[in-house]
Amino acid sequence: MKVKIILLFAVIAVSISCERESLEPKCCSCLEAEGKSDKYIYPVQPGSEGWKRLNSHQEMVNVCQVPDEILKNMCTSGLIDTYLDYPLLFTIFAFNNTNDGLRQVATEFNGFSELLRRNDCATRFLQKYKVIDPAHIRSLSDDIEVGFFMQKIRFFELTLAFEPLRNKLTGTECKTIIEIGLKNLEKKEANNYGNFSLTTNIYLLTKILESEQYPLFLEYQVQHPDINLFLMGHLIYFDYKRESFLIKNICQEYLKR
After folding, report:
1. Does residue 156 contact residue 132 with C-beta atoms inside 8 Å?
2. Which is nearest to 124 in space by CA: 152, 83, 88, 86?
3. What are phi and psi of 186, to 5 degrees?
4. Which of 82, 76, 80, 83 is nearest to 28 (CA)?
5. What is the C-alpha separation between 4 and 75, in angstroms, rounded?
6. pLDDT above 90 covers what percent of the chain?
7. Are 112 and 86 in contact (CB under 8 A)?
């Protein structure tokens, strides 16, 4: 009888210990310091047999949702990685403008909607954007790797420009984006990036200038009304060869303030 009682207390003690561990907040800074991510691994991946059995976009959306008990406990950095790995992130480009595409992703994917609710989502997103070097493309020999790398940068730029995230940036962070954006443009041009990659870069810069209500850019808007369609996410309404020089100059003047 005594043995049974001792075993019972041991089980209760272990249960309490496990419960306390689950209630303790995750050390996100510890994970980052170790170069780790608590991102969600999608159980059904594109190309797998399970994915091939899905018959509609909605079925794909359903299998990509992050379970609530995992979602709420994820670090913001892990959420960003989860968002960037989202198998249906290409939905951004399935609409007439990228803003509508991003809104659709936020509507259908709980990982992105949760990310946008986080107060530190913009800061964390910028931290990850800062360490991406467009010149890294030189070390990639496989065309598929090159394509994925360029696409990743475009996703970063379009998401940083998305109002629900962009509006959480501080003035200092906006300045940082302008600085990085100009450097990235220079590297992209030097490494023969395509027009689309150059355009998403310019789009991010103009969205920051718009949010900052920078006077020189406001004057540019009056003189170039087509830029307003571009700012709504209609990326085709920008002639990079003709207009990028002016935008770059405005950004450089902005940094002199």
Report:
1. yes
2. 83
3. -60, -45
4. 76
5. 41
6. 84
7. yes
- C-beta of residue 101 within 8 angstroms of C-beta of residue 93: yes
Q: Decide if 235 contacts 199 (C-beta within 8 A).
A: yes
Question: How much is the pTM?
Answer: 0.87
179-187 average pLDDT score: 98
3-state secondary structure of 83: helix
- Residue 192 DSSP one-character state: T
Other residues' Cβ atoms within 10 Å of the Cβ of residue 196: 15
| DSSP, residue by residue, 202-250 | HHHHHHHHHHHT-HHHHHHHHH-TTHHHHHTT-TTS--HHHHHHHHHHH
Q: What does the alpha-carbon distance between residue 70 and residue 39 come to, in Å, rounded to a whole number?
A: 10
Rounded (10°) angle between helices 240-255 and 215-223 = 160
The whole-number pLDDT of residue 80 equals 97
Q: From CA 198, how far away is CA 130, in angstroms rounded?
A: 17
pLDDT at 25: 64
Count of H-run helices and E-run strands, the chain? 16, 0
